[in-house]
Structure formats: structure tokens, C-alpha cells
Design brief:
Layout: H1 6-37, E1 41-44, E2 47-50, E3 78-81, H2 89-92, E4 96-99, H3 101-106, H4 108-117, E5 123-127, E6 134-135, E7 145-146, H5 151-162, E8 168-174, H6 179-182, H7 212-227, E9 232-236, H8 255-269, E10 276-281, E11 292-295, H9 300-310, E12 318-320, E13 326-328, H10 330-340
Parallel strand pairs: 4-5, 5-8, 6-7, 8-9, 9-10, 10-11
Antiparallel strand pairs: 1-2, 3-11, 12-13
């Protein structure tokens, strides 16, 4: 038997420790490499492959979690009809019963009982899709996923509601929050300035309103809900989140213009259908393409006063800011007032000048922070 000296044993221990550390380090390097390559993994009907040109991170499968994780609050502050004339008061003032995804997931029978116990409502608002992209009815839309709920019971409830006389049934759909759809359509998603998929506080990925695939997807949902007998589809959160980390080329198309185009596309696709289009938004100008808009702003009473005085046309001159306050285009409102007074729009000229922006030409109370000044204007008829 060979006997090792203390010095030799100590040397062997050092060698063994170094070898162990090398193995651990190699394992970490392999894991890091796998994690790095994971962003290039593409899942398709034909199998799994690597795409090194793919810059976006693959959307992970979103866990269902508890049912209430799919809920999102419903806070309608202002409801305004898009049509200026012949507005049905019942279409504006609704007394509604709200059915959330949690209620549907827990017990449809309890929902029925709650409806039976309630009174004084002429409308029911029901969440038919969650922000995670899970449907609460048996959808036929390609690649769509149904929620972990009794879908047959949800279908039966929807049928009962839509067949109830004199009851307005509104389907609520989160417009752009949909990780399930993004997982199969990366190019349709909002991205960050660093090139990753943008996600909200729920870790949900959002669609871009200027994406043709996203618009077709929303239109397909609306038409499917029309076939199921819904009176109205509310695409809620119809906006682009206010986050500076979102990558957006405003020179190609502004966010407001993208939302307007998307709303116009939805309205055009629903032409001839019986379902009404409603939008929950912070962009009032989309009202011209919808039957109803739900505008979220802290200044709802002021906005309502303007719309009561001038009709829904006033909404196109109002921009709701992320702070809840709003910016009013006074020039546009004045032009609309002249039109409503009977003046031919061809005889209305709106000056592009801005007194605050052009201090060398005009005096402005805002620009001088209250310093007094004066200026005069003259109106004359040209002969």
C-alpha cells in the first residue's frame, strides 16, 4: 500500500478542488449559452428551429394562475356617442351588470343567481377575453386559446343573455393586450427601444395598432361576437401605453394616427353587421369610427360639457394626456362652432400661428408668465 505524505495529500486536494471548480464553471457556461440561444428558438407547425436573425425574445407560455389574475378593472368615466344626431338616450345612459372573468371561472350558476337577484339594469357587460389572450367562449379563431373554465357553461350563459328581450349585451375585449397572439406573431407586438418585446405590469405583451395582423385579428373577434348575438363589442384599453421605453417611429405614423386607422378598419369590417363598435380609449378622435366611446379622464365633466354643446365632433379636438388632464385645440373648436352656425367650411381659414410659440411676433400671457402686454387684431371684408 502506497502512503502519501501530508504535502502530497494537500496537493491532491487542491487539484481535486480546481477540477471541481472547472466542472462547475463549464456547466454555468453551458447554461448561459443555452439561455442565450433560447431567444433564437422559433416554434412553428413544422417543428422547432433556430433563427439567428430573430432579435425579439420568445414569448414564454403565460401561466393561467388564479382566475382573478385575468381580471382588469372597469372604470367608465365618460360615455359619449359618436353620432351627432338621432342619438338614442338608452345607448348613452346604460344601467349595467358586469360579469368578470373571475365570476365566469368560479361558477356560471352563481352568475345566473346574481343576475336574478339584481334589478334595474338594462345592459350586461361580460368579459369574453382576458388580457392574457384567453377566450371565455368556444371561439373558432385560428390559434386562439380558451381559458381554464367551463366553456360550455359560458356558451350557454351567453346564449341566454343574447336571447333575453330588451337586454343590451356588451362583450368586453382588451384590445391590444394578448400574449397568446404575440407568441405566434412577433412582428405584431410592441417592442422596446432595445429590441425586446414590451410588457406591462402584468407581464403581458401588447399588439401594435398599426399591425395589419392585429387589426384582422380584432375584426375577426368582433364578427364572431356578432354571430353570437352580442349587441355591442367594447375594445377596451384601445390605446398605446404611455411608456418612453416603447419603440415607435413617429415619422412613419403617429400613435394617434395608428389608433385612428385601426378604429376605422374595425368600423369598415363591421359595416353591414348588427353589432355596434365601442372603444375604451384615451384618444377621443377615434370616436368618429365607433358607435360609442368610453373616455378615461379626470376632467370628464368638462369634456361632457363640450360634447353636449357641440356634439361628438368636439372629441376630435380633445387630447387626453397621460396625467388624466387634457389638451384642447381651441382653433379646431372655434372652426367647428362656425360650421355649426352655418358657415361654409370653405370660407373658414385657420391660422397656423401660435402666440406662445412666436414671441417675436405676438405677445403671450403664457410665454411671459404673466407679464402684461397688448396686441390688436383687425377683421375686414375683402372686396
Amino acid at each position: 500500500m502506497r502512503i502519501f505524505s501530508y504535502r502530497n495529500k494537500r496537493t491532491l486536494r487542491r487539484i481535486a478542488l480546481i477540477a471541481l471548480l472547472a466542472v462547475v464553471l463549464l456547466g454555468l457556461l453551458i447554461l448561459a449559452r443555452i439561455s442565450y440561444l433560447g431567444r433564437y428558438v422559433v416554434y412553428s407547425p413544422n417543428g422547432v428551429y433556430f433563427d439567428k436573425t430573430q432579435k425579439l425574445q420568445r414569448t414564454p407560455q403565460t401561466p393561467e394562475g388564479p382566475a382573478d389574475a385575468e381580471d382588469y378593472p372597469f372604470e367608465t368615466i365618460l360615455s359619449a356617442a359618436a353620432e351627432e344626431t338621432d342619438v338614442d338616450p338608452n345607448a348613452v345612459q346604460l344601467q349595467g351588470f358586469y360579469i368578470s372573468t373571475t365570476m365566469l371561472a368560479n361558477s356560471v350558476d352563481e352568475v345566473r343567481q346574481a343576475l336574478a337577484d339584481a334589478d334595474g339594469y338594462n345592459a350586461v357587460l361580460i368579459d369574453v377575453k382576458s388580457p392574457l389572450g384567453n377566450f371565455y367562449y368556444s371561439t373558432d379563431i385560428a390559434d386562439a386559446q380558451t381559458a381554464d373554465a367551463d366553456i360550455a357553461a359560458c356558451d350557454a350563459l351567453i346564449k341566454e343573455l343574447t336571447e333575453t328581450p330588451d337586454l343590451i349585451v356588451i362583450a368586453r375585449v382588451p384590445a391590444f393586450s394578448d400574449p397568446n397572439f404575440v407568441a405566434k406573431h412577433y412582428s405584431s407586438a410592441l417592442t422596446t427601444t432595445s429590441g425586446d418585446l414590451w410588457m406591462d405590469e402584468r407581464r403581458c405583451y401588447w399588439l401594435r395598432p398599426d399591425s395589419l395582423d392585429a387589426r384582422s385579428y380584432l375584426a375577426a373577434i368582433a364578427l364572431e361576437l356578432d354571430a353570437r348575438g352580442f349587441d355591442e363589442v367594447l375594445f377596451d384599453n384601445f390605446t398605446v401605453p404611455d411608456d418612453s421605453s416603447i419603440a415607435w417611429d413617429a415619422e412613419a405614423i403617429t400613435q394617434v394616427a395608428a389608433l385612428e386607422d385601426c378604429a376605422e378598419t374595425l368600423g369598415a369590417n363591421l359595416t353591414g353587421s348588427s353589432i355596434r363598435l365601442a372603444l375604451g380609449t384615451t384618444v377621443p378622435s377615434v370616436a368618429q369610427y365607433a358607435s360609442r366611446v368610453y373616455i378615461t379622464t379626470e376632467k370628464a365633466n368638462d369634456v361632457m360639457t363640450m360634447t353636449e354643446a357641440m356634439g361628438a365632433a368636439a372629441l376630435s379636438a380633445i387630447e387626453v394626456l397621460p396625467t388624466g388632464k387634457f389638451h384642447v385645440d381651441l382653433k379646431a373648436l372655434n372652426a367647428k362652432r362656425l360650421e355649426s352656425a352655418g358657415l361654409d367650411p370653405a370660407h373658414i381659414a385657420v391660422s397656423p400661428d401660435c402666440t406662445c410659440c412666436m414671441p417675436e411676433k405676438y405677445w403671450s400671457h403664457r410665454a411671459t408668465h404673466g407679464e402684461r402686454g397688448s396686441q390688436a387684431a383687425m377683421i375686414a371684408l375683402s372686396v
